[in-house]
Amino acid sequence: MEAVAGDNKAMKDVIVKLREMSADEAERRLAEAREDERRDRNAARLYGEIEGEARGIEIGEARGIEIGEARGSEKRTMEIARNMKEKGFSVNDIAEVTGLSVDEIAASEV
Fold first, then answer.
1. Fewer CB within 10 Å: C terminus or N terminus of the chain?
2. Over the range 43-79, which residues count as b (16 or more CB within 10 Å of their CB) and which as e?
3. What are the domain boundaries of the chain?
4. To 10 degrees, what angle do helices 9-23 and 25-86 make?
5. Any residues with CB less than 8 A from the CB of 99 and at least 6 apart, and which?
6. Whole-model pTM above 0.70?
């Protein structure tokens, strides 16, 4: 280990401390307990991140489906209104059947 430390005083101090801790059974157990706790905290954080990401994807997919369905429904309503207009239905009849307002029908390319 001294070869790794070279002339670095901080590394030499760490090596000395490591040897002291390794020699003292109680100190070693305490260090292992701290390391176990650190690993557990990291694992819990990682689990939370994974769960959060999965939940975010789930919410995003649901929202995307909702938006897609709304757009599809709106598009279909406009197609129906356009077809009714081509068949000669009045704007009031188109509004009643489709649920669109007279203004929406007038403003659109129906």
1. N
2. eeeeeeeeeeeeeeeeeeeeeeeeeeeeeeeeeebbe
3. 7-107
4. 110
5. 77
6. no
